[in-house]
Recover the amino acids of this structure.
C-alpha cells in the first residue's frame, strides 16, 4: 500500500490518490465492452457462446442449468455449507422484510383520493459473479429481495466452471430463493444477453448484481441504450475504507483490508488513521497475513493501487471518507457510533472493532450489493424496493374537481397550456350544472 501524509498533498494529488483502478482504465474498458454488446445484439446465442469460449474457457451447447445439475449440486454440497446458506437466507429475509415499502392512500381534499400502489418488476436478470471465486452469497443478496418483491420471472446468470457446470453452492442458494432458471454465462456477454435477449435467453426489464469493471461498464452502457435495460446501480469492483484510531486492533484492520483486496486485482482498499504507530502495525500485519492467504497474489495486486493515509484528526478522516464515498466503511474507533452522524456517503457502515465487513458480505442481514466508484454519494444499497415499481393513482369525485379544479386552472393559465386548462374547466362546468 502507498503510504502518504494527507496534509502534504495538493488537491490534484489527493484526487488522483482516491481514484479507483477501474476509473483509470475506463476508456479501454468502455471500447471493449461496446464491441461485446454489439456482437451479442447482432449474433445472439452464437456470440454469447463464442465469448464464453474465449473468456470462460468453455463452449456450451446449452446455457441452461437442468434439473440433473441442480440435483447433483444438492447431493454433493457439504451439509454445513447448506445450513450456512439457509441461515444467511433467513437473516437476509428478516432484515429486508422489515424495510419493505408499503402502499398507502391519502385523501388530499374532499373527493380527491391519491394512492401509491406497488407492483413487482415482471422480468429481472440477476448476475452472480463466479470467476476467480464463486459467490453464492450474491445469489442470496439478489434472490431474497426479488422473492420478497414477488417478481414473476427471475433469470440468473453465473459464469460456468471449466468443466461446463455451474458452481453447486450458487445453484443451491438460487434454489433457496425459488430461482429455477439459471444460465451459465459470465461477463459483459451475460449483461448483453439479459438486456437485449437472444433466441434462448429472455430479455429482462432490469438487471441486478455486482461484477468486475467489464460487467459494471456493460451495465452502464445498456442502461444508457433506449433498447437496453434498467440497472440497479453501478456495483463494480469491491472497495473498503477503514478509519482506525490508536486503540484499533492492527490484526483486525489488516484482515478487513485483505478481505476486500482478495476479491480481485481491481479492488481497492484505503486505511486512514491519525496515528503513525497504528499505520506501521497494520502494514506489518498485512505482510504476516498475506503469507497465509491462498489468494495472496490477487490481494497484492489490489494493494498496489491502495493507500494508507496519515491525517491530523479523525475529523479529517471523515471528510476524506465522504469525498471518496466508499462501498464499505469501517469505523474502527473507540466511539464509532458517535461518528455515524458525520457519515454522508457510504454504501454500508460497520461500527467498532467487532463488526468485520465480511459479516455484511454473508449473513448479518444487510445487502452486500452496494454502490461503488463513488456512487454512494447519490445511491444506496439493494433492497426490496429495487425490484418494484411504485404507481400513483388518483380518483376524483365531482366534489373533488370542485375543490381542486380552480387550482389547476390557475396553474395551467400561468403556464400557457390551454388544453390543460380546458380539460379541467369542462369538468368544473359539468359538476356545477349537476
Amino acid at each position: 500500500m502507498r503510504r502518504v501524509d494527507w496534509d502534504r498533498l495538493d488537491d490534484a494529488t489527493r484526487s488522483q490518490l482516491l481514484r479507483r483502478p477501474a476509473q483509470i482504465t475506463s476508456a479501454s474498458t468502455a471500447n471493449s465492452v461496446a464491441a461485446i454488446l454489439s456482437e451479442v445484439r447482432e449474433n445472439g446465442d452464437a456470440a454469447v457462446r463464442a465469448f464464453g469460449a474465449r473468456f470462460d474457457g468453455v463452449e456450451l451447447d446449452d446455457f441452461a442449468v437442468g434439473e440433473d445439475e441442480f440435483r447433483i449440486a444438492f447431493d454433493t454440497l457439504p451439509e454445513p455449507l447448506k445450513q450456512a446458506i439457509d441461515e444467511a437466507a433467513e437473516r437476509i429475509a428478516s432484515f429486508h422484510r422489515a424495510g419493505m415499502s408499503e402502499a398507502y392512500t391519502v385523501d388530499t381534499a374532499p373527493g380527491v383520493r391519491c394512492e401509491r400502489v406497488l407492483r413487482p418488476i415482471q422480468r429481472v436478470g440477476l448476475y452472480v459473479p463466479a470467476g476467480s471465486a464463486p459467490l453464492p452469497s450474491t445469489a442470496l443478496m439478489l434472490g431474497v429481495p426479488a422473492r420478497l418483491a414477488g417478481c414473476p420471472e427471475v433469470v440468473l446468470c453465473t459464469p460456468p466452471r471449466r468443466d461446463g457446470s455451474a458452481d453447486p453452492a450458487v445453484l443451491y442458494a438460487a434454489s433457496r430463493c425459488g430461482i429455477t432458471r439459471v444460465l451459465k454465462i459470465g461477463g459483459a456477454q451475460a449483461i448483453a444477453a439479459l438486456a437485449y435477449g437472444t433466441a434462448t435467453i429472455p430479455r429482462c426489464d432490469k438487471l441486478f448484481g455486482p461484477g468486475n469493471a467489464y460487467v459494471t461498464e456493460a451495465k452502464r452502457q445498456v442502461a444508457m441504450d433506449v433498447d437496453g435495460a434498467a440497472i440497479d446501480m453501478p456495483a463494480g469492483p469491491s472497495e473498503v475504507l477503514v478509519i482506525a484510531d490508536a486503540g484499533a486492533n492492527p490484526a483486525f484492520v489488516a484482515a478487513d483490508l485483505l478481505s476486500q483486496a482478495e476479491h480481485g486485482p481491481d479492488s481497492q482498499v484505503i486505511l486512514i488513521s491519525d496515528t503513525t504507530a497504528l499505520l506501521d502495525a497494520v502494514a506489518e500485519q498485512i505482510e504476516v497475513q498475506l503469507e497465509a492467504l491462498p489468494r495472496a497474489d490477487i490481494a497484492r495486486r489490489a494493494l498496489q493501487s491502495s493507500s494508507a493515509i496519515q491525517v491530523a484528526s479523525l475529523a479529517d478522516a471523515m471528510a476524506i471518507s465522504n469525498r471518496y464515498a466508499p462501498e464499505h466503511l469501517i469505523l474502527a474507533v473507540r466511539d464509532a457510533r458517535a461518528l455515524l452522524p458525520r457519515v454522508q456517503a457510504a454504501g454500508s457502515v460497520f461500527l467498532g472493532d467487532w463488526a468485520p465487513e465480511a459479516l455484511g458480505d454473508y449473513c448479518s442481514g444487510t445487502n452486500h450489493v452496494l454502490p461503488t466508484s463513488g456512487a454512494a454519494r447519490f445511491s444506496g444499497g439493494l433492497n426490496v424496493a429495487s425490484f418494484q415499481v411504485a404507481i400513483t393513482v388518483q380518483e376524483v369525485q365531482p366534489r373533488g374537481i370542485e375543490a381542486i379544479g380552480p387550482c389547476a386552472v390557475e396553474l395551467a393559465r400561468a403556464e400557457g397550456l390551454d388544453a390543460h386548462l380546458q380539460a379541467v374547466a369542462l369538468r368544473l362546468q359539468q359538476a356545477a350544472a349537476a
In short: Residues 26-56 form the longest helix (31 residues).
